[in-house]
Design brief:
The chain has about 270 residues and is mostly helical. The protein is about 50% helix and about 5% strand.
Length: about 270
Amino acid sequence: MKRAPSEAAGAWPLIGHFNLLQGSQPPHIALGNLADKYGPIFTVKLGVHRILIVSNSEMAKECLKTNDKAFATRPKALAMDILGYNYTMLGFSPYGPYWRRIRNIITLEHWIANNGNSQKLLVEMKGWFSDITLNVILKIVVNRRYVDYVSHREEKSSDEWRDSLRIFLELSGMFVVSDALPLLRWMDLGGVEKSMKKTAKNIDHALEKWLEEHKQKKASGTVKGDEDFMDLMLSLLDDVKELSNRSADTINKATCLTLILGASDTTSLR
């Protein structure tokens, strides 16, 4: 019978070991001190979640390489639900058939294989990827340039969508109390959930508009030139029921947003 890693002492009711991480020391120092006492692998509780702490390279290799599938799924979080189209974005979705299928779709090899001008794309992507800008990735994904998009928006400031992407990145990396203590979600401490919903709405507004334009072009047969990624997704998602119970539109928008955020350098969104 395998023995579970020991749990650090000092947990409080409801909040767990948060009290040990709220002192003057940075969290990694506090956890390092606990590792000196409990060994290279132990657990702590953060609210309702039990966290495995590993501070040994051999143990880390076991977790992240040898048994990586067991650790591939993240705990549920508010940002993944609201900002990530209810866990539809690749980086937020749990490991499984859907995750593997979407990963295959957005890998460069699969994209190239389904593009008529594959050799050109291969050369350009290699040259761009290290310092790719928001303009370029929008051109690739939805055949739009950011400057073209903002010039046609009369009701909002030109920087709002760019700011929404920046805020998305900030909110997705923020600690949210209700992730550890779900019973407190109704309080929306700090107004984080309200901000997430506003940001998600702003981003989805643009994605929905682009998706409808792509659908209209496909229906009318007026698609000209090379297909962009959103066109490719429209073709691949005809039989979406094989992937999950998510709608094809949601998968398309979430996957395109994954590429836009992943390829845009954070500094370019400031």
